[in-house]
Inverse folding.
């Protein structure tokens, strides 16, 4: 962190506003707090992931196994809570198995559970074409769903451009935030 203080002092030498040692120490202190908090957040996220896996193991493996071993299906705790085992079924088709799974459903007359979504993408200046296509699909007896979206990076660029040009943009309506954000890059190991 002394390198940071040195860099700040060097930057301050070129600054039009004189920077005091106390101000530099304050910046260093805040940066250290930020770094510590980033580390704590990362640790908490890892802890949460690990605890979720521990909970899954307890609920899906350990407790059902132990109750089965001693021959009971439910158990009441001292606080009145009831521990019980119920059948739980879950399913998830992996991406690499999707085509084969759908083929099996179709081959076995079970394809009524497959939901098809057909999407037709229109560009920025094709709003009228999109509306026309929507009306056509509806007229042909389909139940089209129209979902209009603005990609987040497009919205950000739009807002940035409007602000840079000094043009009006309803800040609250578009959720525009203008401010500064500090980041810290991790030091390379061994340097």
């Amino acid at each position: 962190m002394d390198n940071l203080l040195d860099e700040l002092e060097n930057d301050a030498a070129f600054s039009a506003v004189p920077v005091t040692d106390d101000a530099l120490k304050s910046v260093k202190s805040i940066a250290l707090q930020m770094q510590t908090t980033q580390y704590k957040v990362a640790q908490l996220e890892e802890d949460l992931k690990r605890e979720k896996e521990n909970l899954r193991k307890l609920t899906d493996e350990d407790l059902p196994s132990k109750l089965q071993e001693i021959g009971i299906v439910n158990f009441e705790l001292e606080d009145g809570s009831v521990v019980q085992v119920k059948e739980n079924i879950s399913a998830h088709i992996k991406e690499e198995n999707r085509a084969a799974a759908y083929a099996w459903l179709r081959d076995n007359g079970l394809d009524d559970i497959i939901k098809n979504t057909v999407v037709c993408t229109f560009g920025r200046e094709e709003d009228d074409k999109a509306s026309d296509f929507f009306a056509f699909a509806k007229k042909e007896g389909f139940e089209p769903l129209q979902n209009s979206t603005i990609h987040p990076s497009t919205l950000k660029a739009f807002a940035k451009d409007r602000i840079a040009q000094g043009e009006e943009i309803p800040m609250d309506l578009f959720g525009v935030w203008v401010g500064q954000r500090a980041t810290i890059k991790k030091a390379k190991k061994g340097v």
The radius of gyration is 29 Å. Residues 21-70 form the longest helix (50 residues). The beta strands are 74-76, 82-84.
